[in-house]
From TrEMBL:
<feature type="domain" description="NAD-dependent epimerase/dehydratase">
    <location>
        <begin position="16"/>
        <end position="264"/>
    </location>
</feature>
<dbReference type="InterPro" id="IPR036291">
    <property type="entry name" value="NAD(P)-bd_dom_sf"/>
</dbReference>
<protein>
    <submittedName>
        <fullName>Vi polysaccharide biosynthesis protein VipB/TviC</fullName>
    </submittedName>
</protein>
<dbReference type="InterPro" id="IPR050177">
    <property type="entry name" value="Lipid_A_modif_metabolic_enz"/>
</dbReference>
<dbReference type="InterPro" id="IPR001509">
    <property type="entry name" value="Epimerase_deHydtase"/>
</dbReference>
<dbReference type="Pfam" id="PF01370">
    <property type="entry name" value="Epimerase"/>
</dbReference>
Length: 345
């Protein structure tokens, strides 16, 4: 699928706007587009993103591809910023938001501004500038307390946090903008995305355990597992997410647009399995490393025991096939942390 996308991009040169390009997923989307010879404007306000991520993209793509990129440091909650950014743009990939359930409970207004106000500003500006399509990051938090496994797009539950409401509201706005103004939109509910450039944060979901546990194991510390470790999640390598996101931006089938999709690995792993897989990947990096057994603490009673995405709709309409398995993605990620982040053992 990667090569098919690359081939279809070779035939068409577009001007893309990538929001949240200094963040984890946004920086990978930017890298893929520049490697495919596309012209990109990108924006970030560095609320959670970093200049180091942009530098890392520059290093990965080389100076001639980097010259196709214009970076703007700005905040999308300002409508004028969005109008200026959308001028002359064909396609938008929107990754900017504040993705923190905990921050949203502390300060729902700030998260609403960064996630929903910013998105509506972008939709209005995209319509005014005749942008063809906007592909936006949505979230598995839309499933709320719905415990169905696997989760299918039409069966959402009761939302759990203000952040989940802000993300879900974006899906409603996108749907209405596509019907009222003819703007093409595609929403992608990402599940637990992991990979290089992801940093561990206390206020985000289980995928963020991967950088934390990698570091803890590397330093000989015991990783903390909340619960018995048999809770499971659908972890998805960022390379799959980039493929699915670009497929959504480029798909020609009219039935595939103005839709929301699950974008995930489509398989689940327990936290105990995740721990073992990271340990194996680290063992391949450093044969002499001794990995401490995990320590088990109380589970969060609000957490769902299992999550798993049904990715059938994305397979059918976007041609999405995850190219990287969980263990392949973990091997690439762990290798990156060892090379770029961790002190030599
Ligand atoms: N990582 C995951 O597992 C996951 C899961 C579900 C959904 N998502 C969604 O995917 C998107 C990308 O996630 P990520 O993990 O890369 O997050 P991230 O925090 O690494 O990236 C978000 C980027 O957006 C920027 N940003 C935030 N508000 C902004 C604003 N108002 N103006 C300009 N820039 C702004 C941040 O500085 C950051 O660089 C987010 O919308 C997130 O909600 C991610």
């Amino acid at each position: 699928m990667q090569s098919l996308l690359q081939a279809s991009m070779a035939d068409r040169r577009e001007h893309w706007l990538v929001t949240g390009s200094a963040g984890f997923i946004g920086s990978h989307v930017l890298e893929a587009l520049l490697k495919a010879g596309q012209r990109v404007t990108s924006v970030d306000n560095f609320v959670t993103g970093s200049r180091a991520n942009l530098e890392s993209v520059r290093e990965a793509v080389g100076e001639s591809a980097w010259a196709l990129h214009r970076f703007v440091e700005a905040d999308l909650s300002d409508p004028e910023v969005c109008h200026a950014l959308c001028q002359g743009v064909d396609l938008v990939v929107h990754q900017a938001s504040v993705d923190s359930p905990i921050a949203s409970i502390r300060d729902p207004l700030a998260v609403h501004r960064a996630t929903s106000t910013a998105f509506v500003n972008l939709l209005v500006a995209a319509c005014a500038a005749n942008v063809k399509r906007i592909v936006y990051a949505a979230s598995s938090s839309a499933y709320g307390d719905a415990a169905a496994v696997p989760a299918t797009e039409d069966h959402t539950g009761r939302l759990q946090t203000p952040a989940a409401v802000s993300q879900f509201v974006n899906e409603l706005y996108a749907d209405v903008f596509s019907r009222c103004y003819g703007l093409e939109t595609v929403g992608l509910r990402y599940f637990e995305v992991f990979g290089p450039r992801q940093v561990s944060r206390d206020d985000a979901g289980p995928a963020r355990l991967i950088p934390r546990w990698t570091q803890d194991m590397w330093q000989g510390k015991r990783c903390v597992i909340h619960g018995d470790g048999d809770a499971s999640r659908d972890f998805c390598y960022v390379g799959n997410v980039v493929q699915g996101t670009l497929a959504a931006a480029l798909v020609d089938n009219p039935e595939a647009v103005n839709q929301v999709y699950n974008l995930a690995g489509g398989e689940r792993a327990t936290l105990n399995q995740l721990h073992a897989l990271i340990a194996q990947a680290l063992g391949r990096e450093h044969a002499g490393l001794r990995i401490a057994t995990p320590v088990y603490r109380e589970a969060d009673p609000e957490e769902l025991r299992h999550t798993l995405a049904d990715i059938g709709k994305a397979r059918r309409l976007l041609g999405y096939t995850p190219a990287y398995s969980l263990s392949e993605g973990l091997a690439l990620s762990v290798s990156w942390y060892v090379e770029r982040v961790l002190e030599p053992a």
